[in-house]
Amino acid sequence: MAINGVSDNPYAFLNSKNTSSSTEEEEKDPGKLQMNDFLSLMTTQLMNQDPLKPMENGDFLGQIASFSTVSGISDLQDSFASFANVMQSDQALQGSSLVGRSVLVPSSIGVMTADSPMRGQINVAEPVSNLEMKIYSDTGELVRTIPMGAASGYTNFEWDGLNNDGEAMPEGTYQFMATGTVDGQNTAFATAVIAKVDSVLVGSNGQGLTMNLAGIGSVPFSEVQEII
């Protein structure tokens, strides 16, 4: 029973403030537990507790700390979501600057044109005295063998588009392989090629940038070894 206008609920004042702001928050996310809801639940718990076993201060403060932790995690998640959106926009800006440029990527295929020879790099893991580059057509026919002699480490190569008879080959995509003798065994080495970036796709869900390279196709930006 109320006496002189005083409410039966001595904790009612806890839920009497910020009514409009609480309503606005609930409208934004009606399924989310707000601070006012938490205080209402806490008030109800205090009113209905066992008088012989009242809630200790430590328990009360522990519940408040738990709610604050959950609320903080939610805010942190929102911050990370905003950060991810900013990063994606930044990736799109960086990706647009790559279009039209050339990059060095791991590959065993490349494009040769009249204005641009096929160029790349060989990772000669073991020193050899007879490094050799072989160029094949898209049908697998050997069109050129380029002796490169002794080599070790990263070694650049270039093909001018001529076959073994000195005749100019048609523009297009060609395969290549670098080999040398290591401990008496014919060994193939990892190769990379310089290719032009035709377009860039900004992936979603953290997938990053994917480049569409002339004559090669889609390659993740993470595989780029050098931007020319």
UniProtKB/TrEMBL annotation:
Organism encoding this protein: Methylophaga nitratireducenticrescens
Domain FlgD Tudor-like: 90-225
Similarity comment: Belongs to the FlgD family.
Stretch forming the signal peptide: none
Repeat recorded as keyword: no
Example of a GO biological process term: bacterial-type flagellum organization
Keyword NAD in record: no
Sequence segments annotated as region (Disordered): 1-32
Keyword terms: Bacterial flagellum biogenesis, Cell projection, Cilium, Flagellum
Pfam families in the cross-refs: FlgD, FlgD_ig, FLgD_tudor
Residues annotated as domain FlgD/Vpr Ig-like: 113-181
Entry superkingdom: Bacteria
Role summary: Required for flagellar hook formation. May act as a scaffolding protein.
Full protein name: Basal-body rod modification protein FlgD
